[in-house]
Amino acid sequence: QVQLVESGGGLVQAGGSLRLSCAASGRTFSRYAMGWFRQAPGKEREFVATTSWSGASTYYAYYADSVKGRFTISRDNQNTVALQMNSLKPEDTAVYYCAASRLVATTTPSEYNYWGQGTQVTVSS
């Protein structure tokens, strides 16, 4: 069974920080690009950040304009990915999902093959 499990969500005041982690199991994901998406109530799933395969010769990371400069995606090993979120804003409130893609890093949800269940991030004003 392939599983992606997010952790680290919670309630934080505006301006605060959270670090989300995603652990993959059931198979190795060294050849998968990893990404983070989020979905707020009444909105479509939104791209947040993505990063290249862990073994890529050139590390690649790409961010949505809404989080650029505040969020950082990283991979500690083949099967983990983290999202460091700083200077959080109320509009960052959403369920955050990690995902794995057989393709190179992409911003398109339909190109991701595996998804976690999500973790709630709530930013109060």
Reconstruct the topology from this structure.
Blueprint lengths: L2 E5 L2 E4 L4 E8 L7 E7 L6 E6 L9 E3 L7 E7 L2 E6 L8 E8 L12 E2 L3 E6 L1
Parallel strand pairs: 2-11
Antiparallel strand pairs: 1-3, 3-8, 4-5, 4-9, 5-6, 7-8, 9-10, 9-11
Order of helices and strands: EEEEEEEEEEE
| Overall mean pLDDT | 91
Instruction: List unreliable stretches of 5+ residues.
Output: none
What is the first-to-last residue Cα distance? 40 Å
Taking the sheet with the most strands, its summary is: 7 strands, mixed
Summed up, the helix count is 0
Structural class: mainly beta
Describe the structure.
This protein is an all-beta fold. Helices cover 0% and strands 50% of the residues. It is built from no helices and 11 strands. It has strands at residues 3-7, 10-13, 18-25, 33-39, 46-51, 61-63, 71-77, 80-85, 94-101, 114-115, 119-124. Strand 7 (71-77) and strand 8 (80-85) form a beta hairpin.
Task: Summarize this structure as a short list of keywords or feature phrases.
125 residues; mainly beta; seven-stranded mixed β-sheet
Summarize it:
The chain has 125 residues and is mostly beta strands. The chain is built from no helices and eleven strands.
